[in-house]
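Hey all, sorry for the wall of text incoming. These are the two entities for the joint prediction.
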Amino acid sequence: MAPFRRLLRVLPRPSASFLVPLIAVLYVTVFILLPALQVVAGAFAKGLQPFLENLTSPDLLSAVRLTLLMGAIAVPANTIFGLAAATAIARRQFPGKALLLSVIDLPFSISPVVVGLMLVLLYSPTHGLLKDVVGSLGWKIIFSWPGMALATIIVTFPFMAREVIPLLEEEGWDQEEAAHTLGATSWQVFRKVTLPTVRWAVLYGLVLTTARALGEFGAVAVVSGNITGQTQTLPLFVEDSYKQYNTELAYGAALVLGGVGLVSLLLKVFVERLVGGVKETKPMN
Amino acid sequence: MAPTIPSAMAPSRSAGRPAWPSWLRLSWSWRITWIYLILVLFLPLGAMALKALAVGPAEFIRLATQPEALATYRITFGLSLVAALLNGVFGVVIAWALVRCRFPGQRLLDSLIDLPFALPTAVAGLALAGLYSKNGWLGAPLAAWFGLKVAFTWLGVAIAMVFISLPFVVRSVEPVLRAMEQDQEEAAWCLGATPRQTLWRVVLPQLMPAILSGVAQGYSRAVGEYGSVVMISSNVPFKDLITPTLIIQKLEEYDFASATVIGMVMLAFSLVSLLVINGLQVWGRHWQTNPVMAG
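and here's what came out:
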């Protein structure tokens, strides 16, 4: 209690205090900096050579390929949805608009595991709601890449819409109206007026969507079946290697994955600087 | 004709095609939005709701309150609360350090705050498990000096939850603190308030909506978290098993009914927390524009 009281006494006079920064630095060091350093140290625990050898393990490479596939499916799909939803919703008022915006935000508050569970209950060949349809069409969705891609899409689709909608709401209608009056078709207006207006928001949304799509773990874990070399994305590979006591391999893959996170963080800061807007922080993973 | 986005661009122009009733005249952008939402969100949500309905009310309650599930609720919701409150206190301190202090390494500290949001959860889980393992940088001294075992206990679960929800309070308090006029604190000082009175009566009340909103967001995130917890937890029921992991275990045992029911409990929590967070944010905006009325 005594140090807490002392902290309270110095709080309103920060110029005279070094306690506040000290506590902040200690807390962040223990909970964030040390874990981050742990990944690097773990990956290079036996030196550079074993680390590089680990990177060429065929299972890891197949996990990287599958992870990139997830990104290649989820990012374009969600970009199309985000732009469509933004042009549809942003610039008009209608009853239930706030509700619709909350619905679009929903995947952010649902646990990723529940997202995966919903897909299993829908598409599972034995217990799913659509098991007859899935069975008769011969599709393999659960325990296969389509289900994993769908899970990735669900957890990442709010990012793009959330970035583009506020920007369009701010910009107003005038330029589009002018283009229409001058005889542009709707598609031309969208391509030449709307899209350039929102380009930074789209770029920002792309960074966030990609980062999350490549790093998603919980939702994909439920639907993947986790078959090494087949339905294992990089995050699943990290967990599996760790469970198999293949610690160096796990850290190697984690460093690659952490690199993706770090690059996306830098890109995000870079876009923020370019736009010069307010800094905002939302979960990317 | 190329795919167009016609009436989205000009809502007033959508008249002209007489054949369709007005509520069916949707522009391309609306069609894409609805089809996508139905396929990606409503269909899976509906499947889970129907499966839960098929269980029947009595069985639903029995499965939702089976002892194993109750134990995971206690662990998940309890530890998340501890983590969120801890971050509530230290988040304010960190935000204060970032806004009101100047010290070496401040920029680095600022960037580090975002790391839990950017780092994939599997990486975070592995890092924490390694750090707090019995040979880890922090795990070894903690065990030697205090006899504390962190990895594979509930303590490790709590630490993973602290990690994952740390940025929320910092990032929601920071802008409010930045916008706050320092005159008020000076006025309080001129009127003879002690620093402690200024803190409790002038500064903290203004920050409260932002703090609560950050704590609620962090709490909601920690409750749903899976990736960073599963590796540091031993996943033993009644000890440190969290609810999301229990859902996966139930699925692996082909106990679909239990998984569905427990999933519905988690979903209901998500919806409530979404409402609470929205409410807190509205309150915060209202407070900032008109603190007297809001008070």
